[in-house]
Design goal:
OB fold (Dihydrolipoamide Acetyltransferase, E2P); alpha+beta; about 45% strand; about 25% helix; four-stranded antiparallel beta sheet; 19 strands; Elongation Factor Tu (Ef-tu), domain 3; 4 helices; six-stranded antiparallel β-barrel; single chain
């Protein structure tokens, strides 16, 4: 019987403890709610604010590209023969028509001299027969025969002169010669590579842009490019050509720009990082990223309205160096909380401890040299 009384007493003590805990817990929640309604601690929440401002925002695409010469060709022999002379230095700038290589041409020169003599003889015969025809000493058929013989000889001479000219390998355009593949005295066949020729006064830069930007791509857009070979230098150019097809695998379009290369620093085949400016806006509303409160796919900020904080949903756009564009939900000139967000609730009373003016924003959130 004593054991039963002891168990009953223990149960009463446990029930009393639970009741006391429940009362204290309810009182604590009521105090917390009251404190939250007044910004915590029974008073206004201290916050730091910034003024939403307008700035220039550029919509850019970053890609990788490869440099190409404006014009590029492998210089080859058109006919077989032995290299008689090489008339350039490797890496030399040459002009269109300059003779780069000469093949042995003694046979062709002899053939031209022979055919030239035949042309001269045929011309004399034709002139004589025409004079005799005027005196009725020869028939018209003889004149026609001599004229045909002259024309045949001239055609054969022209063909021989072409064969002779093929012994001179010329530059097809202004450019810079590459490394030569043969030496003087070497025998080459038709199609043998001799050297390369590239026009690199300006360079083509080819890269690909995702299909979703196709509507913004037009010739004339600004392009800047950088190379690991020239870390401290950017090369400026503009878009000049767009591909006519979308790659079905990468879903991108080929783009070509041209970069000035008068200094001759760039070479065909270089790997470059490309920054393409698609459009620019001068009236974009900007805030520091610290002012944003992301919740899933939604983003909020706290706007100061008098002495209270108002929770607003906003839409964001471009991001740049710690700043984010607000495309909807906020206007330039409005005060927004950037510090003290953790204790804020919609409608909470606030106390502004610091108001960051534009100069302070620039120093704190913008990189050096930006404005």
């Amino acid at each position: 019987m004593r054991i039963v009384y002891q168990l009953l007493g223990a149960a009463v003590l446990v029930a009393g403890g639970i009741g006391v805990w429940w009362v204290l817990d309810q009182a604590g929640e009521g105090n917390a709610s009251a404190a939250a309604g007044h910004g915590g601690g029974g008073g206004p929440v201290p916050v730091e604010v910034v003024t939403a401002r307008t700035d220039t925002v550029e919509r850019t695409v970053v890609a990788v590209g490869t440099t190409l010469a404006r014009e590029s060709v492998d210089v080859v022999a058109e006919v077989p023969g032995r290299i008689r002379s090489i008339n350039f230095e490797e890496g030399q700038r040459v002009e269109e028509g300059d003779v780069l290589f000469e093949l042995d041409r003694r046979r062709e020169e002899a053939e031209v001299r022979e055919l030239q003599a035949q042309v001269d003889d045929a011309r004399v015969r034709y002139r004589r027969s025409r004079a005799l025809f005027e005196d009725n000493s020869v028939s018209e058929a003889q004149v026609d025969e001599d004229r045909a013989a002259l024309q045949t000889a001239e055609a054969r001479l022209s063909a021989a002169e072409t064969r002779l000219d093929e012994r001179f390998i010329r530059a097809p355009f202004d450019g810079v010669t590459g490394l030569r593949e043969i030496s003087t005295g070497a025998y080459v066949t038709a199609g043998t590579p001799l050297t390369t020729l590239d026009d690199i006064a300006s360079m083509r830069l080819e890269f690909s842009v995702p299909e979703r930007f196709l509507g913004l791509l037009v010739p004339g857009l600004g392009v800047s490019a950088a190379s690991v070979g020239f870390e401290d230098r950017e090369f400026e150019g503009e878009v000049v050509r767009l591909g006519t097809r979308i790659d079905p695998v990468s879903r991108s379009v080929r783009v070509q720009s041209e970069l000035d290369n008068e200094a001759g620093l760039l070479r065909p085949g270089m790997f470059m990082t490309v920054r393409l400016v698609l459009d620019s806006r001068d009236d974009a509303v900007m805030l520091p990223e610290e002012a944003l409160l992301p919740e899933g796919e939604r983003v909020f900020v706290f706007r100061i309205n008098g002495e209270t904080a108002e929770r607003l949903e906003v839409r964001t756009g471009a991001r740049r160096d710690g700043m984010v564009e607000i495309t909807d939900g906020l206007s330039a000139g409005e005060l927004v909380v950037v510090a003290g967000l953790q204790r804020l609730r919609d409608g909470a009373t606030v106390r502004i401890t610091r108001d960051h003016d534009e100069d302070e924003v620039a120093r704190r959130w913008m990189p050096a040299g930006d404005s």
